[in-house]
Amino acid sequence: MSTEGSGASRAGKDGIHNEDAFLVEEGLGLYVVCDGASGTPAGEVAARISVDALEEFMERAEADLGGNLREDRAVLDIVVRAMNHAITAVANAERNDPGQLGLNTTITMLLARGRHGVVGHRGDSRAYIIRNDRCHQLTLDHELTESIVSSESEGSDFEVFSVDFKPGDTIVLCTDGAESVVEDRDIVRIAGDLTPRLLASRIVSAAHRRTPSLDATAVVVRVRGECESGWLELSSIPEGTAFGHTLTRR
Fold first, then answer.
1. What span, in angstroms and rounded, lies between the C-alpha atoms of 95 and 157?
2. Quick check: 137 and 161 in contact, CB under 8 A?
């Protein structure tokens, strides 16, 4: 199986300052959304540092480990390490610049590898899976502390878990400005018929119309079978544990 993705983002409030950031790196199978914590002096800085740190870490890991990153346990471990690396990068930025006290950000990422993916998550951005015309929230909302340095000193609060893919799955990573739209029946119904780019744009545009004061960001990832030429095939929900979650806490 393979994945393809796209993202869209729109600033709320003044239409200029967007505290969200996202990454779509199909070569690495890496998809990320981050939302700088509301009320901090430089939320957009924290979100961007986190996204850049995750990309840098995964590029290095891919170069060092290569094929080993297709082993389930290795992928879980690398996402834990990537999350720690991003959190440390933001904390270091806060320590090194007194003008950026209070830096914090959510992180919701997906690392896709063949038939499986691993989600890393902290904060109240969300990951959803749309399968068989039904939308399921994969992540739980976490309350962030006032500063990422405080989180780091107390032991970072994040979770990492695996997801079993089926051809036709649509995974949506989004910030809180877009989450209510992702669950809309109209969005769920058309999800399998749109390209990731169109669906991400549709989600963000609808979110802006609904709550124009909030930044809204969505990254849409489509899972395709080896011989699949389109995006229309959807599979039944597996029996037992909904999506094969294997939970790992730091």
1. 19
2. no
Output b/e per residue, 52-65; b: 16+ Cβ within 10 A. bbbbebbeebbeee
Model's pTM, two decimal places? Answer: 0.86
- pLDDT of 32-64, one tens digit each? 999 998 555 577 889 999 999 999 999 999 888
CB atoms within 10 A of CB 169: 25
Separation of alpha carbons 215 and 221, rounded Å: 20
Q: CB-based burial of residue 16 (10 Å sphere; 0-12 exposed, 13-18 middle, 19+ buried)?
A: exposed
Q: Report whether 213 contacts 13 (CB < 8 A).
A: yes
Assign 249 a pLDDT band (cuts: 50, 70, 90). very low
Strand partners, 22: 33
CB 121 within 8 A of CB 159: yes
State which H helix or E strand residue 46 sits in.
helix 43-65
8 A C-beta contact, residue 17 and residue 230: no
Least Cα distance to 228 among 142, 139, 161, 167 occurs for 167
CA nearest 181: which of 191, 192, 193? 191
Is 159 in a helix, a strand, or coil?
Answer: strand
